[in-house]
Amino acid sequence: MTEQNTLTVRDNRTGEEYEIPITDGTVRATDLGQIGRAEGTPGLAVYDPGFTNTASTRSAVTYIDGDKGILEYRGYPIEQLAEKSTYLEVAYLLIHGELPTKEQHEQWVHDITFHTFVHENLKSFMQGFRYDAHPMSMLMSSVSALSSFYPEASRIKDPEVRHEQIVRLIAKMPTLGAWSFRHAQGKPYVYPDNDLSYPENFLSMLFKMSEQKYDPDPRLAKALDVLFILHADHEQNCSTNAVRSVGSSQVDPYSSVTAGIAALYGPLHGGANEAVLRMLKRIGKKENIPAFIEGVKNGDEKLMGFGHRVYKNYDPRATIIKKACDDVFEVTGVNPLLEIAQELERIALEDDYFVSRKLYPNVDFYSGLIYEALQFPPEMFTVLFAIPRTSGWLAQWLELVDDKEQKIARPKQIYTGDRQLTYVPQSERWA
Ligand code: ACO
Fold first, then answer.
1. Are 106 and 121 part of one and the same domain?
2. pLDDT higher than 70, residue 2
3. What letter would DSSP give residue 390?
4. Would you say residue 27 lies in a domain?
5. What residues are labeled active site?
6. Which of 227, 277, 292, 302 to mutate to test the pocket of ligand 1 (most atoms within 8 A of CB)?
7. C-alpha to C-alpha distance for 199 and 324, rounded to whole angstroms
8. What is the whole-number distance in angstroms between the Cα of residue 335 and the centre of ligand 1?
């Protein structure tokens, strides 16, 4: 280790100096833990609510440069993948680390296609939900239930078993997602059609009625596939962290992915595009935008779909989605809320409040508009996110399972409560 690759820390409480190694731009929290320990105190810890500056893992899956607006899966820029690849190929890339050969691709697509069906008991399980159940809640519960259908999934150290569950999960997510959608509409569940591609089959399970064979519009199937590619992974975000955290207990992948779905359900994560649509509808017309922006600046509310923990620049996915809007609107007709969104973006990007805080549109700012044009109700938006993110979660989960450095996730706390109180019996407290 060269001298430059260390951090010299002087503890002014004791005058002690410590030499802490710096590796890959990080110091180990456990190295900081030696500070002060000799003096009988618990040793220095790091306080970082929300992990704003803490690396929890090494990862070779996804690279983001938030300042420059760069997103790469396994080193490939998102723009190239969105333009030239398919979601299933991208899923292969995320899981295996490399683009597939022709044979590998054929096998992968075949395997995913032939695992799209789910056990009939799972269908009955889903039919037991109330008529107005949120589809994300149904998806979360049914993915969790999958672990009971495949008990061998708990053998997470066996690569073959792992691979089989990965194929099953990627294959069955569209089936479960589509059935959650049909349930709310009181329509019969549509079985997978294995003659169709991944996005086409999903559209068929969502929208097929009495026709013999569903005939999806290729432009809509392509747009959906691009949206799937954009949402496939995003390194250590809230839901991926949930997958890794739960996975660190060595539970099966269905349970870990369920944790990811739960995290994605929240409005600050996957639920933001639903909030964007509500916001756009509330604004209603362009003339109301200045008053709305004033409210945001006064701290009354947030401009949903703007800002990101990592991107301090235009989210590259937002640029691609904006382009996909044109393709979808060509088929469906323009969503009238688009005009309000574009005007909001224009005003916000010129306003010092947003500029100085580096708040730019994120992936959710335009995705809700597309989903609405595709006739999805807002409750389905997070489901549409969870389906492709499954490949990313599983790629990260695979990394975790094989990472010798990982331990069961168990953060520290700074205790702020009372100590050593004496219990007062109920008879005395309630007298
Ligand atoms: N509208 C108005 N002000 C905002 C917004 C926003 N959307 N986002 C951040 N700010 C302000 C904060 O109030 C804060 O201002 P201050 O310095 O005066 O206190 C400053 O910008 C920094 O914001 P933080 O909250 O510290 O940023 P953080 O990284 O914690 O939050 C987050 C990121 C949660 C995404 C936030 O920007 C937000 O809530 N955005 C709206 C919700 C949204 O679009 N979420 C989708 C994220 S993408 C995804 O999950 C797929």
1. yes
2. no
3. H
4. no
5. 269, 308, 364
6. 302
7. 15
8. 26
